[in-house]
């Protein structure tokens, strides 16, 4: 299969491209810069130059492929409306391009669903509806094409996709601990975050691309929920600082754009995903990756 991948040079994207190529697929990755293009080439993939605002390149890349994996996102925490708009436009473009072809379209989505009072499952609909919602409501938009000849497969990634070179939420929390001289957690820290190693996430993307039926929602969650206090304590051990409890609202002020997420209790299961595709995570746990020193350096 020839697969067009957006976000191919990113932390998750690199693992996905390598997984696809190892499985015998040909890959073309979208790259917005010379540096990104070099990364994609080194992985053994072809390059299409463009970014999320270049809808013509996205359209042409999707049209030329047998399937699409959409991982790119602007992640502009200061202007979420910009990220949301770009995400919705790119998903709309890919969906329209693939309509009527029965080709697979795997897209990254979010797994955090606070307020359920139980672990989220693949049967829970995403609460993000409409262009002004997180990610521009792209998951729900894409799913409308499942009955229009697109094999849409949203993959909801755990809030923490971890591993060496991770610069996401846990890395930001580690940076805050260095600045503060303490590794903070909200309240008693019993709230939980799902986690998945990026190698397991990449394998799930490939399995979904190859085998998941149209409209299938997959959960990339190897761990149902790691208590935030345990994350803070593991970071404290590595960084040589104390782990301390702070009020949730204070944490939200101290760690901009991430602190408020740390206070959410968002456990999630992946039982349906595992049973459907035979996905069995084998990578290190989040606490093992912290203990391995992957978050020691700024």
UniProtKB/TrEMBL annotation:
GO molecular function: aldehyde dehydrogenase (NAD+) activity
Superkingdom of origin organism: Bacteria
Domain NAD-dependent epimerase/dehydratase: 3-214
Species annotation: Nonomuraea diastatica
This protein's name: SDR family oxidoreductase
Disordered: region residues: 114-139
Any Gene Ontology CC annotation: cytoplasm
Signal peptide feature range: none
Pfam hit, one: Epimerase
């Amino acid at each position: 299969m020839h697969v067009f991948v957006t976000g191919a040079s990113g932390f998750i994207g690199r693992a996905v491209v390598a997984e696809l190529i190892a499985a015998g697929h040909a890959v073309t990755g979208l790259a917005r810069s010379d540096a990104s293009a070099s990364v994609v080439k080194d992985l053994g993939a072809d390059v299409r130059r463009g970014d999320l605002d270049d809808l013509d390149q996205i359209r042409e890349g999707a049209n030329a492929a047998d399937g699409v994996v959409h991982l790119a996102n602007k992640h502009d925490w200061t202007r979420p409306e910009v990220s949301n708009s770009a995400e919705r436009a790119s998903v709309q473009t890919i969906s329209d391009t693939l309509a009527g072809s029965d080709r697979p379209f795997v897209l990254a989505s979010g797994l955090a669903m606070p307020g359920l009072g139980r672990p989220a499952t693949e049967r829970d609909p995403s609460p993000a509806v409409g262009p002004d919602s997180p990610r521009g409501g792209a998951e729900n938009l894409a799913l409308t094409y499942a009955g229009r000849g697109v094999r849409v497969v949203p993959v909801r990634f755990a809030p923490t996709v971890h591993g060496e070179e991770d610069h996401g939420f846990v890395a930001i929390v580690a940076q805050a601990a260095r600045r503060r001289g303490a590794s903070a957690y909200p309240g008693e820290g019993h709230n939980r975050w799902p986690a998945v190693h990026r190698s397991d996430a990449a394998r799930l993307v490939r399995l979904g691309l190859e085998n998941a039926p149209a409209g299938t929602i997959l959960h990339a969650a190897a761990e149902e929920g790691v208590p935030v206090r345990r994350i803070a304590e593991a970071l404290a051990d590595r960084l040589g600082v104390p782990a301390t409890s702070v009020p949730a609202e204070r944490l939200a002020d101290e760690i901009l754009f991430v602190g408020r997420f740390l206070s959410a209790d968002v456990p999630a299961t992946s039982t349906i995903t595992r049973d459907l595709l035979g996905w069995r995570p084998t990578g290190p746990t989040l606490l093992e990756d912290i203990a391995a020193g992957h978050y020691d350096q700024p």
